Amino acid sequence: MTSKDRRLIFSAAGAQFCSRQRGFVGIAPSCVIATSASYPRDGPAPSGDSSVFGGNNFPLALIDGIFAMSCEQSRFHCERTVDDRCNPKAPFEISMPPADRFLHLTTLALAVSAVLLAGSSRLLADCPADLTSDGTVNAADLSGVLSGWGTTSGDITGDGLTDATDLAALLGAWGACPVEPVIDWILLTATNGTSTIAIDEAGVTQKSWTGATGGASAGYLRADGSLVRPSHHAGGAYVGAASGGRIQIFNAAGTLTNDLIVSTAAFQQHHDIRPMPNGNILCICWEGHTQAAAMAAGRTTLTTAFWPDSVLEIRPTGTTTFEIVWKWTLWDHLIQDVNPALANYGVVSAHPELIDINLGTITAGDWTHMNAIDYDPVRDEIVLSSRSLNEVYVIDHSTTTAQAASHSGGARGKGGDILYRWGNPQNYDRGTAANKVFFTVHSATWIDSGLPGAGNILALNNGDRAGGLNDYSTVLEIVPPRDASGNYTIGKTAAYAPTSALWSYGAPGQIYGGAVQCGAFRTLDNTTLITLTNSGRTFEVNQAGTVVWDRLNPGITVPRAAPYRRINGLWIGP
Question: Which domains does the chain have, with CATH numbers?
Answer without folding.
Answer: 6-176 (no CATH), 183-572 (2.120.10.30)
